[in-house]
């Protein structure tokens, strides 16, 4: 597992790296203290996962997230931020972030969030899950996952896993060796299966039920064919 940590606070980076190494011995961690350096590494290195702070001195993390997901769509990005406003989190999910780890939470919550990300699960603050879920009836997944992959066919379950990791339909099509239109049909079927209208609601549902899909695979820059550097 090879991850990139982009954050301008050295003490916070050191703490996160300690937790990551506790969660997964042997993990390789790259780090960057500026957005420019972090984006350059993310565009040119083979990585499994990126942890990205939103508030960096040389740029806006959401802008960088949008650009990264455009140029490296197969690379999962988890946001780490002290900004827990609903609008910020919804915007990050709209840019295909894999999850949102709140910096203000105690160490045990941060550790659980990192474990979830390394296992291919979506992590969102409990308060945000409750707010975004609204009055929607909970969908009980835990009793189903052990027997039949949430009641989905193997292809739909694989598609769901890529969606959870933040891949858009075109990148999923490349991973699965399918036409883009076929993946779009799969996504529509998933939304109907879980009775949600959009990917954001589906991500909240997965986070609420703590569903994991296995460690994110290595993403190669050549797979995405990114354009000019940040």
TrEMBL record:
Gene3D superfamilies: 3.40.50.2300. GO terms for molecular function: DNA binding. Residues 2-118 form the Response regulatory domain. It comes from Caballeronia sordidicola. Keywords: DNA-binding, Phosphoprotein. It holds the Pfam family GerE. Residues 145-210 form the HTH luxR-type domain. The modification 4-aspartylphosphate is found at residue 53. InterPro entries: CheY-like_superfamily (IPR011006), EvgA-like (IPR051015), NreC/VraR/RcsB-like_REC (IPR058245), Sig_transdc_resp-reg_C-effctor (IPR016032), Sig_transdc_resp-reg_receiver (IPR001789), Tscrpt_reg_LuxR_C (IPR000792). This is Transcriptional regulator, LuxR family. GO terms for biological process: phosphorelay signal transduction system; regulation of DNA-templated transcription.
């Amino acid at each position: 597992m090879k991850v990139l940590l982009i954050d301008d606070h050295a003490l916070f980076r050191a703490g996160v790296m300690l937790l990551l190494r506790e969660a997964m011995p042997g993990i390789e961690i790259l780090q960057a203290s500026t957005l420019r350096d972090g984006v350059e590494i993310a565009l040119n290195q083979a990585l499994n996962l990126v942890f990205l702070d939103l508030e960096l001195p040389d740029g806006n993390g959401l802008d960088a997230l949008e650009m990264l997901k455009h140029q490296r769509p197969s690379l999962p990005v988890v946001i780490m931020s002290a900004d827990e406003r609903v609008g910020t989190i919804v915007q990050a999910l709209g840019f295909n972030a894999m999850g949102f780890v709140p910096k203000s939470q105690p160490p045990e919550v941060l550790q659980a969030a990192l474990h979830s990300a390394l296992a291919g699960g979506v992590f969102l603050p409990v308060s945000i899950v409750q707010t975004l879920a609204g009055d929607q009836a909970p969908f009980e997944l835990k009793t189903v996952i052990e027997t039949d992959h949430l009641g989905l066919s193997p292809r739909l379950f694989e598609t769901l896993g890529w969606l959870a990791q933040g891949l858009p339909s075109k990148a999923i099509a490349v991973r699965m060796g399918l036409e883009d239109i076929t993946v779009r049909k799969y996504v529509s079927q998933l939304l109907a299966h879980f009775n949600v209208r959009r990917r954001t609601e589906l991500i909240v549902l997965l986070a609420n039920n703590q569903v994991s899909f296995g460690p994110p695979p290595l993403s190669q820059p050549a797979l995405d064919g990114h354009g000019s550097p940040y």
